[in-house]
Design brief:
The complex is a heterodimer. In chain A, the strands form 7 sheets. Chain A has a 7-stranded mixed beta sheet with strand order 11-12-9-19-16-17-18. In chain A, strands 1-2-3-4-5 form a 5-stranded mixed beta sheet, sandwiched between helices. Chain A has a 5-stranded mixed beta sheet with strand order 14-22-21-20-15, with helices on both faces. Chain A has 20 helices and 28 strands. In chain A, strand 6 and strand 7 form a beta hairpin. Chain B starts with a strand and ends with a helix. In chain B, a hairpin with a 2-residue loop joins strand 1 and strand 2. In chain B, helix 3 crosses helix 6. Chain B contains 6 helices and 5 strands. In chain B, 37% of the residues lie in helices and 16% in strands. A 5-stranded mixed beta sheet of chain B has the order 2-1-5-3-4, with helices on both faces. The longest helix of chain B is centred in the C-terminal third of the chain and has 14 residues. Chain B is of the alpha+beta class. Classes of the chains: A alpha+beta, B alpha+beta. The structure holds FE2/S2 (inorganic) cluster (FES) (2 copies).
Chain lengths: 761, 152
């Protein structure tokens, strides 16, 4: 079993942008959703770079329709989990089209690989991949409407302008709404692509501005539909007792007490995955209690008696494994990148420093716990789920009930947070299986305890960095050891080293100009399900690297910002290829298209120093820390100030981020991702999942702590570099630099360096 | 199972449920109002916040038998069309990210403002501490509440 194709940052990239327009049939359109299929229908098939499991079929379609009442309907094929993508991509199309944004309807796509290509909303790449295609689709529709208008007025197309869903011709004073033009436009041939011109950047009305999210009103009035909010007639609710230890098997169970609970209808065993590598897309073994309401199902599950054969992970102790991992980093590992001549003598000459860094497991803990609704009837299956990856959900559900994928329809609800958790479709497979077993619609409801006990965790990690200085005090060598159970091990127990993909997240792409660099990984086993969480291994890699750099700067008597600028060196495009042993993933993008440019990082570093008044803050003795880290192709620098209140609690008065993400498409959502990213990262810095006897020790938010309003940074300022470079992602990049910037600030306050997370504050 | 007559958003509902069923599940599963959310079931996250006689209450741990004839208000009953000043402030500040926690946040803030129409920043932080947001919208929530509190 190999699930790698679904892991967003491990996938190979596709070469070129190409696209072709087509005209979908009305029937096809109607099948896509409740789009009005009256007026002008346009589909654009795009070949774009980005992660894909099979490059030959990666050709997502963008669909739009314009109706006779000028309503523009756009299909959103990416999942909305809080980033604003469901708003932002259609907004790009609408802006290019010249549509009145108030008259745009957004329709959520079902999971359909043939139509939409890879819909996995993960890896911060939606904007990166679809910015261009969305503009092309909008420009094409605009072209056709203008042509229809110009033809009927007998004027030159070039003299026509488009604004607020209308085409007008100034000198003749003629004007027509989109609605009035669609009939004629629909009869025109599709333009060839060369005939379609994109607007100049300055002419955009929405792109580069603050645009409110589409679902805003529904959310604040409680009308927005999340995973558990779909109601079907006769639906049962399932709450499941799952294997407490990964690899455990059911010996026997007694359902009699559960069946006594009023409302409980049936108890069903789920065979689920087998063994210690349960995969990323299978249900865990368990026993489901199905009831007429959630409460009865919860009580029924409590009353279940399940006798488990706990299997080989029953002694797993995360603390113990972490110390073993740390030990291992002292030895020789597998070299993943090498520059210069790395004889041991080289890095131990002169002044040397060696530090170790430990970080724990993390759970995603979306406030909406996983939930999915399935309705199996007449050999077809319909799903409603908050899924980041509707196609994988479709495949997993089809496999769970032995149906071909064509017989499965996956409706994507809003997601109450995702962060990587909801790309794994195990909970969807559960719902599918149970609906078939019961012959009724079923909602599988996870509780918070289920969520914390059965997540796909971000790995704990141990790292060791040895650095040496040359005679003149410059950094001469950098030897980074990293070890953490790999995501791949969840599907294949023999994967003992992190993949190139995981190493490429903040370790292989270490950008600094140091003559001798060696990166080594070490073996470790996975004893639980490992997954990816917002920014993935960048979290621990940035923690170690940026903490170490801060300490080295101090040792060298340098300001950490000056040091980073020194280490970035001349303005140049870096190249990693010759030094990296495996594949340099570059987040699925061709390196030439998205290279590592030191000038861009220097710019955000300088920008944050200026905005945070770094020099002044230092002079005034403020506890301010700094870190810079590029991830998901976005350049980020960050400062954090810390203080204590009268009760001795940690206070974070100010966070500054400077970010270069190319074109900031929806500036408000870029800022909100960074504001939220700081808070998310602060929770990571202060919380942990631990295992004892193979089981997770935290049960709910009292054990696994998410920061609360009083702890949140008082102010988070986001300084966006104005840029017309290709846009890159912003969902994940805020997270990595925050933690080391915080640790570096805490050091100023306490005089103690932080080598181990979680912080005790 | 027992019969209860509970008042939700000004309407009386007859429900036949076990006495220990939390109000949350009565609201969601029995009455069918889905704006009140489930996040933890242990009064730790605030996603399920509703008003019981104008007080913010975590409905996930309040057994239906304890509700009596008190008036329950859910997000659907806070205003007709989303024109409560807080809902408007939430839109003005584009507070939500995923949005899942937000109905609970708004209900908690609305109860807070009823008690104290012009809370200080620190009071807001303390009063809102029971409502988690994993997406990290705390700054905007605070700004939205402050904008309403100073304007009244
Ligand atoms: S669900 Fe009630 S407080 Fe979390
Ligand atoms: S907006 Fe997502 S949990 Fe608050």
């Amino acid at each position: 079993m190999n699930n790698n194709e679904h892991i967003p940052f491990i996938n190979k990239a596709l070469g070129k942008d190409q696209s072709s327009l087509f005209r979908p049939s009305r029937r096809e359109f109607l099948k896509l959703g409740s789009l009005a299929a009256g007026g002008l229908l346009i589909g654009i098939q795009v070949k774009c770079s980005g992660p894909s499991k099979d490059t030959s079929t990666f050709s997502p379609n963008v669909y739009l329709s314009i109706d006779k009442d000028s309503t523009v309907s756009i299909i959103a094929h990416r999942s909305e989990m809080g980033t604003g993508i469901r708003t932002t991509l259609p907004m790009v199309l609408a802006d290019e089209l010249g549509a009145d944004w108030k008259k745009v309807r957004i329709e959520q796509a079902v999971g359909d690989e043939e139509k939409y290509g890879d819909q996995n909303t993960d890896g911060s790449y939606s904007i990166r991949m679809f910015y261009e295609p969305m503009r092309k689709a909008g420009a094409t529709a605009r072209y056709m409407l203008v042509k229809a208008a110009a033809d009927s007025w007998d004027v030159d197309m070039k003299e026509c302008t488009v604004k607020d869903s209308a085409v007008s011709h100034a000198s003749s004073g003629k004007s027509a709404s989109f609605g009035e033009l669609v009939e004629a436009a629909a009869k025109l041939d599709l333009p060839n692509e060369g005939g379609v011109e994109l607007k100049a950047f300055k002419d955009y009305k929405l792109i580069g501005k603050d645009v409110p999210i589409y679902d805003l009103k529904d959310i604040v009035t409680g009308k927005a539909k999340f995973g558990a909010d779909v109601e079907l007639p006769e639906m049962l609710v399932a709450v499941i007792g799952r294997s407490p230890v990964v690899g455990a098997k059911i010996k026997s169970f007694d359902k009699s007490k559960a069946m006594e609970i009023q409302g409980v209808q049936e108890v069903v065993q789920i065979e689920g995955s087998e063994g210690i590598a349960p995969g990323l897309d299978k249900a865990l073994p368990g026993v489901a209690v199905l009831a007429t309401n959630t409460w009865a199902a919860i009580k029924g599950r409590e009353a279940l008696q399940i006798d488990w054969d706990l299997g080989e992970n029953q002694d797993f102790d995360s603390g113990k494994q972490l110390s073993e991992m740390l030990q291992r980093t002292a030895g020789e590992g597998q070299t993943r990148r090498e520059r210069g001549n790395f004889a041991p003598a080289n890095f131990l000459q002169g002044d040397a420093m060696e530090k170790t860094y430990l970080a724990p497991f993390y759970a995603h803990a979306t406030i909406e716990p996983p939930a999915a609704i399935a309705n199996y009837a007449d050999g077809e299956l319909e799903i409603w789920a908050p899924t980041q990856h509707p196609q994988w959900a479709r495949e997993a559900a089809a496999a769970a009930v032995d149906l071909p994928v064509e017989k499965v329809r996956v409706n994507v609800t809003l997601l109450g947070g995702g962060f990587g958790r909801k790309s794994k479709p195990d909970f969807v497979a559960e719902a599918a299986f149970l609906s078939k077993a019961m012959g009724k619609p079923v909602r599988v409801q996870w509780t918070r305890e289920d969520d914390l006990h059965h997540d796909f965790y971000h790995s704990h990690s141990a790292q060791r960095i040895r650095a040496s200085l040359d005679g003149s005090g410059k950094i001469y060598s950098w030897n980074h050891h990293t070890v953490f159970p790999a995501i791949g091990a969840t599907s294949n127990p023999d994967e003992l080293h992190p993949s190139d993909g995981e190493m490429g997240l903040g370790a292989l792409d270490f950008p600094y100009n140091i003559p001798h660099i060696r990166l080594e990984s070490h073996e470790s086993k996975a004893h639980t399900r490992i997954g990816w969480l917002r920014s993935v291994s960048n979290i621990h890699h940035a923690f170690a690297i940026c903490s170490m750099l801060d300490e080295l700067a101090e040792k060298r008597g340098l300001d950490p910002i000056d040091q980073v600028l020194e280490l970035l060196g001349e303005d140049q495009t870096l190249s990693f290829e010759d030094e990296v042993k495996g594949t340099f993933g570059n987040y699925g993008e061709p390196y030439e298209k998205f290279p590592w440019e030191t000038a861009r990082m220097k710019k955000v570093v300088k920008k944050v120093a200026e905005a945070a008044q770094w020099e002044k803050a230092k002079r005034e003795g403020k506890n301010i820390g700094f870190a810079a880290h590029k991830s998901f192709l976005t350049y980020v620098a960050c400062t954090v100030t810390v203080d204590k209140d009268s009760k001795g609690n940690l206070v974070i008065p100010e966070v500054h981020y400077a970010v270069d993400c190319g074109v900031a498409v929806n500036t408000d959502r870029v800022r909100s991702q960074f504001e939220g990213g700081a808070q998310f990262a602060l929770s990571l810095a202060t919380s942990a999942i631990t295992f004892k006897d193979g089981k997770v020790q935290q049960n709910n938010f009292d054990g696994y702590k998410i920061i609360r309003m009083p702890q949140a940074p008082k102010k988070t300022y986001v300084h966006i570099v104005e840029s017309q470079e290709k846009p890159t992602g912003v969902g994940e990049p805020p997270v990595p630099p925050f933690i080391p910037a915080l640790c570096n600030a805490l050091y100023k306050m306490t005089g103690k360096r932080i080598y181990e997370l979680p912080l005790s504050v | 199972m027992k019969n209860f007559s509970i008042q939700v958003n000004g309407k009386s509902h007859e429900v036949n449920v076990p006495e220990d069923m939390p109000l949350l599940w009565v609201i969601r599963d029995i009455i069918g109002l889905k704006g009140t959310k489930f996040g933890c079931g242990q009064a730790l996250c605030g996603a399920c916040t509703v008003h019981v006689n104008d007080e913010a209450v975590r409905s996930c741990t309040l057994p239906v038998s304890a509700v009596g004839d008190k008036a329950v208000t859910t997000i659907e009953g806070l205003s007709e069309e989303g024109e409560h000043p807080l809902q408007e402030a939430w839109m003005e500040h584009i507070v939500p990210q995923c949005g899942y926690c937000q109905t609970g946040q708004i209900m908690n803030a609305a109860a807070l403002l009823k008690k104290n129409p012009s809370p200080s920043e620190t009071q807001i932080e303390e009063e809102m501490a029971g409502n988690l947001c994993r997406c990290g919208t705390y700054n905007r929530i605070k700004a939205a509440i402050l904008s309403v509190s100073s304007s009244t």
